[in-house]
């Protein structure tokens, strides 16, 4: 490989939001200039919680929107390989082989699995969801990924990948790099309701593709300090979602500090703080909107990127699988059986 490789991506369940940006996209934008970058459209992972016929019918549309969001955020199309997970069946073969390198109790200790099941309204954990980190290991290692920029939720999954890579290399010889987890500066972003992390399913998210009016409306409805009933009452800055967003997205640091000082002293109302946050967020999102408009105007480009990327990735995955099977001895096992069968056929065909 000419350059170290990065593997990252998302499930095609809808448009990406600010939580995705701080959790991993910001890192992807910085890293994709240094790494050979693969971006997975993880529709098989989507099936662990969203697997109705209607969900699946939305994959192609959601995939296009997701890739457009990623490009709009700053990823250059000539430095990225986008691919559709379900279009590469060899990943499933690798997943099957990896399942034997990790135990059920180990997977049950991954904290996000129960959270994902709860968020999806599932009383019991499906087999596929329990094995989510194993399939993720196949995703990362099938292209020999060496860097994985992820949010807080997926950190434990990447650790499972590291364990599987080490286990495989120990048993069968060094085939895989042990990937490095690259954590975000802001691991999670609380939702606009202040009750949980930003999430599409909870309806508490600001999308990267939201227009200015939508952003302002969502900001003006944000949760703040519940104990503050009037503007002249001193308020809490710590734990206040509005100020958490100011800290991450408002580039005018002097303004942020001045607002915090006035808020703590009871000299500014929530409306003014939110108004300035809306301005700051729209200032942050404007370049993303402009890039998105350019990619949307080039009809068919995103589809072409996905097709080209999927075809290229499948070649890489097939190459990896051949090496994996050879290292494990699976190739030689069948070769030996076939040779004996050929000798048998020749002997049977020879006259006595």
In short:
With 352 residues, the chain is mainly alpha-helical. It has 16 helices and 5 strands. The strands form 2 sheets. It has a 3-stranded parallel β-sheet. The chain has a two-stranded parallel ribbon with strand order 4-5.
Give a verbal description of the structure.
Catalyzes the attachment of tryptophan to tRNA(Trp). It is found in: Cytoplasm. Its EC number is 6.1.1.2. GO terms for molecular function: ATP binding; tryptophan-tRNA ligase activity. This is Tryptophan--tRNA ligase. The chain is mainly α. It has 2 domains: about 220 residues, HUPs (Rossmann fold, 3-Layer(aba) Sandwich), CATH 3.40.50.620; about 80 residues, Tyrosyl-Transfer RNA Synthetase (Orthogonal Bundle), CATH 1.10.240. About 55% of the residues lie in helices and about 5% in strands. The chain contains 16 helices and 5 strands. A 3-stranded parallel β-sheet has the order 1-2-3. The protein has a two-stranded parallel ribbon with strand order 4-5. Helix 12 packs across helix 14. The longest helix has 28 residues. The model has no long low-confidence stretch (mean pLDDT about 90).
